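Q: Entry one of two.
A:
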Amino acid sequence: EVKLVESWVGLVQPGGWLRLSCVASGSTFDDYAMSWARQAPGKGLEWVSAVSWNGGTTYYAESMKGRFTISRDNAKNTVYLRINSLQSEGTAVYYCLKAHDGGYYYPGGEYDYWGRGTQVTVSS
């Protein structure tokens, strides 16, 4: 059984910043790619970013490039997502996902564990 727990710190107002963290337990964390996804109010789930097993390769949704940075610390079993220049569109529930198979992300890949999500509301 794998448990993923999300949290965040930051200045969550327009123009501010946010750092999401996801701590994993119960698995060989550093064998697998990890992803972030989000769901804004009234919208579907949107994949945001992924990082390879060793942090050496990162992937971003096209609209996320530039302001988003994903990273991981395998010694801490933690994956991060930093968002700069927050926009109101950043209001969403953010989820951490563990890849089902392999250390690299690929479109259409499956996930076998999700966190419960953490609510982020960007507001002035």
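Q: Entry two of two.
A:
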Amino acid sequence: QVQLVESGGGLVKPGGSLRLSCATSGFDFKNSAMGWVRREPGRLFEWVSGIRSDGTTSYGDSMKGRFTISRDNAKNTVYLQMNNLRPDDTAVYYCAIPRYQDDPALPFDYRGQGTQVTVSA
């Protein structure tokens, strides 16, 4: 079955960086679009970033220029490099398989268990 396992979250000061990883199994990774979403307590999911199978990337407006998504098809893993983190980036971050492969965005069909990212001084 589809498995998505995130890692790399933690506590970081404003302006700091984190790199999230998502190890996957159970589906055809190299031919699948992938993405990252996040959710703050009591709020809806927010699309963070997506990467198509051809490597085309997309980002939410507030993430452009700060976050970079990438994938390693040999390792079935997708990454999210987050730089210049801000307190409003605090959320649980989830790796996800978007429903529409040509335009990675919400909604998604699968997600992992999530990893907490906290940005605080």
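A: Comment on entry two: The mean pLDDT is 95. The radius of gyration is 13 Å.
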